[in-house]
Write a structure and sequence with these properties.
CATH superfamily of the largest domain in chain B: ATPase, nucleotide binding domain
Shape of chain A: globular
Number of domains of chain A: 1
Largest sheet of chain A: 4 strands, parallel
Structural class of chain B: alpha/beta
Number of strands of chain B: 10
CATH class of the largest domain in chain B: Alpha Beta
Oligomer: heterodimer
Helix content of chain B: 40-55%
CATH architecture of chain A: 3-Layer(aba) Sandwich
Number of helices of chain A: 15
Distance between the termini of chain B: 20 Å
Radius of gyration of chain B: 18 Å
Strand order of the largest sheet of chain B: 3-2-1-4-5
Strand order of the largest sheet of chain A: 2-1-3-4
Structural class of chain A: alpha/beta
Radius of gyration of chain A: 21 Å
Helix content of chain A: 40-55%
Number of domains of chain B: 2
Number of helices of chain B: 8
CATH topology of chain A: Rossmann fold
Strand content of chain B: 15-25%
Chain lengths: 427, 257
């Protein structure tokens, strides 16, 4: 693989800024953070054994997870098929690590998006999965991501992927296809492997197993939602971001079988409160909100989070297996890979939330409002009013990556559940 | 049935002993750094106040220190407790405003006193008792004096920042510009009131609000809220005990886990 040259793609920067000094013991601290998040998941009794496979995938950051160079990606917009077709492997770098966040603050101001600070800090201090990537693809999804690439370019080669400003394929598809073609060219120049029709087709077909397995798991969960906790489903999804798709799909099938078997043995508890989770991403290992919700006896049955299941539903629908036909299909699929408020309007999110409430029989909706993410905050405000008109209980939890406000979060979640239970008793 | 409720707040711990809605005894003390001891002490004093010795009462704990309370007590959130308490002491209330040390809560009540919706301040101290505490120190007055000052205001200052830290700088620059401290005090209450009014909009508003919590004892704050909400607020006697009373009332209700 060629190293950070400036002959193709995004040019090298003219100016460089001060380097982040990896804080002493940051790597060990990062491992402790992950261990403690895992311990919280494992503290629940009766979890399916197959989850161990996903725990291993998620924490296998330092082990080589396959052939080819690691290409770091952010968000749900980067087509993994294109990365894989040119002989590289995508590694998702989105992180909620407070250790990475504080490393990032050496250069970034404290009052920008916590996730941007953490993602930058992880790459700069080479923490966790971010330590593997020599090149990263940064979609210009939100304002913070628009500038994140500049900060990262002092440490790794950065390929910027310009996401269309709105989700309207009638006007934006041509532009988006051209961006993905450009990404393919840039990546292929790095690996020396061309993006051919045959290689792209293989990559698309290999990835298809993922969607099929995920749908099977969801069908099983619908019948037995109490067997697999929302946090464990998020674990399965988070593992998908960097795992080999075929390996992941096999593990998901094993999990689905186990959920089915356990579901037949265990009666569904009547006291549990099923909830839909929406809003800003809950990035591993910052899973405080899952721990609080589940610790209070409720369950997250479905979500719209880009950090969890939202990116796993839609397959790539190829009508014509020509190279342009496949790129067009990828463009359409990754156009709608998440409900990010940076380019999806609140109506689209609301439709999805209402659909999930109905499908999963949820008693309420919890929105994660990440402090300093203005768009998700604004979306929460609209959603609150829309759901109230429909008498669907709604709670917005305004928080950050750390655990310093866990008691404040807990009192809000517990009060929300008390309210739902009282309303349920009254009916 | 005689029951107890203990409300271990971030600033003060309150305990109430009640029987069929009548308060038999109550106690209030600072929470300090040991919420468990504060809870036990408040409970003992409330028992003594009620002239009781039996400690085996059904008891419910609430407030930030609820899980640290005397072992075995059932715990609920202060939202549920405030709703129950306010429903009893302010008949017909369909809204509750509770201005506490760390959190400000607005609750919309159903006709039977259950919670229909609620909203709390976001993570920061804006619109809470903590905000006023910080401003009291910026003005070098005590809390009661702040209230009296506000009542004498001729032209309330406009405090734009709701962030406690920025508002403190704003107060300092108002002092530097020789704005009368009574006008600054009135401006601070108006600032809190506008934050609380925004929270009431989050729950869809109400027509008859009970105003409870420590903040309800300050007439200037109550008036600022009445101006912001455009309606009269009802402050029950002993507003700071309403949450503890609500917890005690819940201790008397059947409980199905």
């Amino acid at each position: 693989m060629k190293r950070a040259g400036d002959e193709q793609g995004t040019p090298a920067r003219h100016y460089r800024v001060a380097r982040v000094t990896p804080p002493a013991g940051a790597a060990a601290e990062e491992r402790r953070l992950q261990e403690s998040a895992l311990a919280s998941l494992r503290s629940r009794a009766g979890r399916p054994d197959a989850l161990k496979l996903f725990e291993a995938m998620l924490t296998a950051a330092d082990a080589p997870a396959g052939d080819g160079p690691a290409v770091g990606v952010f968000c749900n917009f980067v087509p993994a098929e294109v990365v894989e077709a040119v002989g590289a492997r995508p590694v998702r770098l989105c992180t909620g690590s407070v250790v990475a966040q504080s490393a990032g603050e050496q250069v970034m101001p404290r009052d920008v998006c916590p996730v941007a600070r953490a993602c930058f800090g992880a790459v700069a201090a080479r923490l966790g999965a971010a330590g593997q990537a020599d090149v990263v693809v940064v979609p210009t999804a939100c304002d913070a991501k628009r500038r994140l690439g500049e900060f990262l370019s002092d440490y790794v080669q950065v390929l910027q992927l310009s996401v269309p400003p709105r989700n309207d394929y009638r006007t934006e598809l041509g532009y988006w296809v051209a961006e993905l073609e450009r990404l393919g060219r840039d990546l292929s120049a790095l690996t020396g492997i061309p993006l051919t029709r045959a290689r792209l087709r293989d990559a698309i077909e290999r990835r298809r197993a993922r969607q099929d397995a995920f749908h099977e798991l969801q069908r099983t969960r619908l019948a037995h939602p109490h067997v697999l906790a929302g946090s464990d489903l998020a674990l399965v999804a988070a593992a998908a971001f960097s795992a080999d798709p075929v390996h992941w799909a096999e593990a998901v099938r094993a999990l689905a079988n186990e959920v089915m078997a356990l579901g037949a043995q265990r009666p569904r508890p009547s006291a549990s409160v099923p909830l839909v989770l929406t809003g800003a991403p809950l990035l591993w290992p910052a899973w405080k909100l899952y721990a609080v919700i589940e610790g209070a006896g409720a369950s997250v049955v479905a979500d719209t989070l880009c950090s969890a299941t939202q990116g796993l539903y839609d397959p790539v629908q190829v009508d014509e297996w020509s190279r342009p036909g496949m790129m067009r299909a990828l463009a359409l699929r990754y156009f709608s890979a998440c409900l990010c408020p940076c380019f999806m309007d609140t109506d689209a999110l609301t439709d999805r939330v209402l659909e999930l409430v109905e499908e999963w029989g949820a008693c309420g909706v919890v929105a994660h409002s990440l402090r300093l993410c203005q768009l998700s905050g604004m979306q929460c405000a609209r959603l609150r009013h829309i759901l109230r008109q429909r008498s669907i209980p709604f709670l917005a939890v305004d928080t950050e990556l750390g655990t310093e406000d866990v008691e404040q979060v807990r009192v809000r979640v517990e009060a929300f559940l008390e309210m739902i239970k009282e309303q349920r008793r009254r009916q | 049935m005689t029951t107890a409720g203990i409300d271990i707040g971030s600033v003060a711990t309150k305990a109430v002993i009640q029987s069929n809605g009548h308060v038999l005894g109550k106690a209030l003390l600072k929470t300090g750094t040991d919420p468990r001891s504060a809870g036990e002490e408040a409970f003992s004093r409330a028992l003594a106040d009620a002239g009781l010795t039996a400690r085996e009462l059904p008891c419910v704990a609430t407030g930030y220190g609820r899980s640290a309370a005397n072992t075995g007590a059932r715990t609920i959130t202060e939202i549920l407790a405030a709703a129950r308490g306010a429903h009893l002491v302010v008949p017909g209330a369909d809204g509750v405003i509770d201005l506490g040390g760390q959190d400000t809560k607005v609750i919309r009540l159903a006709a039977d006193g259950t919670v229909a919706d609620f909203a709390m301040n976001d993570k920061c101290a804006a619109g809470t008792g903590r905000f006023l505490e910080l401003m009291v120190s910026a003005l070098s007055v005590d809390f009661d004096r702040l209230g009296k000052l506000a009542e004498a205001a001729s032209k309330p200052a406009r405090i734009n920042s709701t962030c406690a830290v920025f508002a403190e700088s704003e107060v300092v620059s108002l002092i530097a510009r020789s704005v009368p401290e009574s006008d600054i005090a009135a401006g601070l209450f108006a600032s809190i009131a506008s934050r609380v009014a925004a929270l009431t909009a989050h729950v869809g508003g109400a027509s008859r609000y009970a105003f409870i919590g420590g903040g309800a004892r300050t007439p200037a704050l109550r008036r600022a809220l009445e101006v912001a909400l455009g309606r009269e607020l009802i402050v029950p006697p002993d507003p700071q005990f309403v949450v503890a009373l609500g917890a005690a009332l819940i201790a008397a209700e059947p409980h199905d886990g």
